Sequence to fold (145 residues):
Amino acid sequence: MLKATLAGFIVSALVLVAGGGDEAAKKERAKFKGTWKITKVENAKGETDEFKGAELRFDEDGTMELKHNEETKKATYKVNPAAKPKELDIKIDEDGGKTIRGIYQFEKDKLKLCVDANPDMSERPTEFGVKDNRAILLVTLERAK
Fold:
C-alpha cells in the first residue's frame, strides 16, 4: 500500500489541484516547473532506495508526472505558498482521484517534500520529519540538469 501510494504521489510528485487566478500560487508553481530527480526518501524505518533516481516533472499548469522503472504516472498538484509551512496537495489521476497532503520547501536547487502517504487523510504534516505512528515520507529532490 505504501509503495503504491508513494508511486502515485511521486507520479503525481510531490500536489494540490492547480488553483484558478491566484497569482501567488501561479508564481510558486513556476518554481516547481521542470524535472526533479528523487535523491532521498525516508520513512519511520529509515532511508529507502526504492524510489531513488525516479523523476518528477512539474508543469506550471498544475500537472505532474512520475517516471520510475519505465513506468509513468500522472497527477495534478496545488500549492498554498501562504501557509506556514507551505502546503502541497497531489491528486493522483489513476487512483480514483485520491489526494496526498504534504508540505514543501525549496533550498536552492533542492526541493523537500514531507507527505502523509495515506491518501485523503485529514491531517497534513506540520513539520519536516517522519513519525513512528504515521505513514509520513520525507522526500528530497534535486533539479535535473
Observations:
- The CA atoms of residues 12 and 33 lie 13 Å apart.
